[in-house]
Design goal:
Shape of chain A: elongated
Distance between the termini of chain B: 48 Å
Radius of gyration of chain B: 18 Å
Largest sheet of chain A: 2 strands, antiparallel
Number of strands of chain A: 3
Distance between the termini of chain A: 62 Å
Number of strands of chain B: 5
Number of helices of chain B: 5
Shape of chain B: globular
Oligomer: heterodimer
Number of helices of chain A: 18
Structural class of chain A: mainly alpha
Number of domains of chain A: 2
Structural class of chain B: alpha+beta
Helix content of chain A: 55-70%
Number of domains of chain B: 1
Radius of gyration of chain A: 29 Å
Amino acid sequence: MMGTCCSPTEAELSNNSIAGFDAVMLAYAVSEAKRIRERVPANWSPIARFFAILRPFIHVFLLARWDWSKERYRKGKPGKAPIPREAMLLIHLISHLGTIRSYRQMCDEIANHEDWMRALKLKRSPDHTTLSKFRKETGPELFDEFFTFSIAILKLIGGLVADTGVIADSAPIEACMNFARANKRIKIDETRVIDLLTKIEISRADSLYPRKRDGGTKPSCIIGLLIIFYLCRFLSRSQMLREVAKYPTLMHALGLDDGVPSQPSINYLVKQNGGDEKTLLKPFIDAIARYFEENPAMASEQSINVDFFFRTVGHAGRVT
Amino acid sequence: MATQDALPDPDARIGYNVAKDKAYVGYKCHAIVGNTSHAIYGIRITPANTGDAKHFIPLMEQAVSRELLNDINRVHGDCAYHVEKNVDWLQACQFDCKLHDKSESGLHRKNIRSARKKSKIRSVIEALFGIAKNNLTFEKPLVRCMAAVQVDTKLVFTAWNLFMVFARLENRWMYRISVKKLFNKG
């Protein structure tokens, strides 16, 4: 059945609102989309046509829901004009076509298609980090509204008239993760870790972060555990504590003859000394860097990864 | 160097897919689909280890509060949603409850006809999920954490609805769910 595009009826417009969106604005977007459709160059690809025809809808949506006060760019003031928000949303929609496997690939595809760039009114393709920042800054609420908006337009143009019922069901979404890596047991090279801890004089931590009460786990032990956590790339502290408990020689070297401390003990020391473990590790970073400079072979091996330790972004291990 | 791919998703949970008879790690997407248009009326993402029944009312309420179900009078669903609370809620909202109960699983000889009816209705949404999986990036998000997966899945289904809008405006309504045909030149 070949459907024809319907104009909104008077009755629909008289409601003034469809799913919370102004019906008059939506009707304006429909008429604008029809006008653009007639003018799209014949040699443009269907995706470029999609960008051009859907653009008025996105514009209306942004007028209704986008918080324009958040925009930092002011015309005439220093700074670069941002990529149009309409283009950003349209790029995100086409990024979910099955043929495009990542946002990085999407940016390359835009750069390779001149008609897409023209339809999006872009001079250059955005970077994938720009897309990522846009998603983060926008937040899930706006995308939720955007979804509602899509169904409101469908309702307005008569796409839902035949529906008399709805069907509810669920589908699995598999997490994006590398199971082989996630399930791999992380092993500690006892000799090397003990050598490192001795060379960087981990015992300095006892005087740097003295305990307020006697007893309990020594601060040097806890700082040593935190260093092991980052250097051996453990995914959680509890995983690290379980693993360290399997190495009696390392436990002895750390002064943990009575067993590994609990996670709250580590948190307690961190909280007592400012609450930021990055700051606690700072006095030892120079010594660790020196150690790996003297032993470059160790840094290149999988067991100990200095790159990861000095990374500013990433998983739990954020050390600057 | 540790790549992002090596790090697990902290919000993903172990779930069980009854249809495929296998466990998986991730999330579950609940959706409401129009029986004829195949438009998506509402979606809700939950961790994979939660039951279906308790997410039915929030999912429907979301769509009802946005006045999307004003012209709808029947609600179909499989037996996972068929609990007393959901049935009562549907009756209170004056929807015709067509949620299947456990006797309609197709295993009981007495109810062969109802099982056939069930599979006819279910084929709409099952086919839709299959098409969304093959033609869009549904079921395989490229991001981690619940918030990011929610945004990603919402974008997939927003794209699905807007492709339908595009099909309508281009007078190619019959290709509304076939992305390949819709974006095929000529």
